[in-house]
Design brief:
mainly alpha; Arc Repressor Mutant, subunit A; 3 domains; two-stranded antiparallel ribbon; elongated
Amino acid sequence: MDTASSKPADLVLPVAFEQQSTAAQQGTARRLNLQANVLEELWRAAEAESCGLSAEEFSVVLASVGERVNHGLPPGVLPDAVQMAVFFRSLHLAELALAQACALGREAAWEIFLRRYRSELVHAAVSMTGSATLGHDLADSLYAELYGIRQAAGERRSPLASYSGRGSLLGWLRTTLVQRWRDHHRRTHRETPLEGFDSAAPAATPIPAKLEQLTAALERTLRGIAAEDRFLLSAYYLDRQTLRQIAQTLAVHEATISRRLKRLADSLRAQLIENLLSSGFNKAAAQEALGADPRDIEINLRALLQTSQTSTFPGKTAPTATGETQ
């Protein structure tokens, strides 16, 4: 089964075929030991052209996958051309081509990926976390990671480069989502001293004074963000618009909106904690306050987020708001 590393920075996509020397291209053909008509058959079966992946690039992908798992044979066994062809035909070729084209940053591939898997990712994340908000955050975080991280050397890195096509891409995505959720859970849930488990703690009762401070800190935080950021938050979290709808409104790519929302959520959390600390909370109390039940907080989020939210979008109209948040 394919699994994605929990350290995406360790994954490096193979060099694009057009960037290889003639000798390297010939080396790829020798490594595959397949006739040109078989390679073309595999490329067409994968519908790789629709993903923006050339036959030569797909050959590089196949060579890399085959060598990684020795074409499905026991270690030390050298495959012949027939065994190679049988192995490659057993792969999820279309999904392999799509994943590798996405890892290379091909826009055509990303459009296909979003149509096929975006809603599945969100649905799986919401089911996994038991929360619409946490689920959307988790799915957006994974999507931004899948889109690729550019390192200082300019090298594109994406977990999708590790997908080998031996299992379904949807299964791989769900497995990766589970890994990221576990990583998040480990980061946010620290070990509790043993004495904490001696008896069940009574349910926490909100303290009105603390809730007032939390509400005031939240208002200060939201009033301090830019109009464009208020628009993004309102459109995504209150109006439940999709990333595609928001991207069309702002005339940018979906991935840009996803990354912007992720950075914005992280920034707001950090700013809210700072505001709570300045209100007299200690660090532990500030972290605990972030887990307060939203129903205990009397605040009109829509009014705060929609204040002058369209001022930075000349010529564009923000989506119409309906109703108040609960």
